[in-house]
Amino acid sequence: MGERWRMDGDGAVTIILANRAPQKQLHLPARGTWVRVCFVVNGVKTQRATYTTLHLAFEAQRRGHDVWFMGVDGFSLTDDGRVLGKCARPPRAAYKSARRYCKALTAAECPSEEVVLSELDVVFLRNNPNMGREAGPRENPALDFGRRIRRHGVLVLNDPDGLLRAGSKMYLAGFPQELRPRTLISRHIETVKDFLRELDGPAILKPLAGFGGKNVFYVRRGQVANLNQMIGAVRKQGHIIAQEYLPAVARGDKRVLLLRGEPICQDGHVAAYKRMRPKDDIRNNMHVGGTRKRCSFSETEQRICDLLRPRLLADGLYFVGVDLVGDKVLEINVFAPGGIHNIDQLYKINVSAVVLDDLERRVEERRFAV
To answer: Which CATH number do you get for residue 134?
Structure first.
């Protein structure tokens, strides 16, 4: 790379990129707060500038931290117990935007090398194991490798054991009934039909292992026509979630980002936004044409987060996305919760800065504790 390093009088490190014209200097924070972090994703080359992972990484890179990306298939375990990763890191530069940083990361010439992950400060697990399930069940090697990295003293987020517990939509069933819609999880067709009759109202059918709004069906009260076909389509993916339909969802659901169980807040704005469904669609997902809008954050919604917090903290779920409708929780997203790009644009804030501030504090605390 042609890099030269210099320690300045204030303890900061200056990297001089001698192979560039004009010459650029990047000031890293003092070694005490310098974070070595790797983001584990499904695929490095598929990253986009709108992804939450990319925004977090860009903020870390902008602060001068040592930032790596790796695909989930890049893990290796050596015979002596070290965990390695095939990692990519864009050339050090003063990137002016997340878009330019992403372009450098996904370029064919982006440098990559094998990194000893067990020597880093933070490994951020941001891969979604549900991606690619059309080809059959997919293992999540990040959990086993993450446990081994954690044993070396690395801060692994979210906690691998917590991800295993919370990775299923069944996780929500462990919270108080007052927080969630009436729900049945089953593969038995008659059991699902009995639940729908007892519910005596509209319902949603969706796969337990689903994501992104795929194979989600609306069932009218007392509906018989096409019911078998809907149940059959969802059942192909495994267990079925039959869930009470909340009429308030027609006015949108609310994505809230939590850090250590608390709603992220910056400049008086809670990191939350409302997702409005497109016409003639029951889903609010942005990729199916949903729209976004600013929203308020009520005392009722704060109370919901307060009730969720103890369990989230106990399970080591550091960065989480919660989907709310009225006074109910629809989903808890733990693998790769998104929304930073939308929230930043709607409120003109920088959610990633809040996350990085907290991450730096955690790393510093751990170093002093050693």
So the answer is: 3.40.50.20
Regarding whether 291 and 241 lie in a shared domain, the answer is no
Q: Which pLDDT score is estimated for 290?
A: 72
| Alpha-carbon distances of 179 from 15, 140, 190, 328, rounded to whole Å | 51, 29, 27, 5
Domain interval for residue 239: 182-245
> CA 75, CA 71: separation in Å to the nearest integer?
8
Q: Return the bridge partners of 7, or none.
A: 13
Asked whether residue 48 falls in the same domain as residue 144, the answer is yes
Asked if residue 227 and residue 266 are part of one domain, the reply reads: no
pLDDT at res. 11: 40
- The Cβ of residue 186 has, within 10 Å, a number of other Cβ atoms equal to 16
Alpha-carbon gap, residue 210 to 230, rounded angstroms: 14
From the centroid of its chain, how far is CA 233? 27
Domain total of the chain: 3
Average pLDDT per consecutive 10 residues, the chain (370 residues; last block may be shorter): 41 44 43 83 97 98 96 95 96 94 97 96 93 58 96 96 91 92 96 96 90 83 95 93 92 95 97 84 52 95 97 97 95 95 97 97 86
Global pTM? Answer: 0.85
Round to whole Å and give the CA distance between 246 and 201. 10
- Does residue 342 sit in the same domain as residue 228? no
Bond into 215 cis (ω within 30): no
* DSSP per-residue string spanning 209-220: T--TTTT-EEE-
Residue 28 in any domain: the answer is no
**According to the model, what pLDDT value does residue 169 have?**
81
Provide the 8-state DSSP code for 179.
G
d(CA 30, CA 44): 29
As a whole number of Å, the end-to-end CA separation of the chain is 33
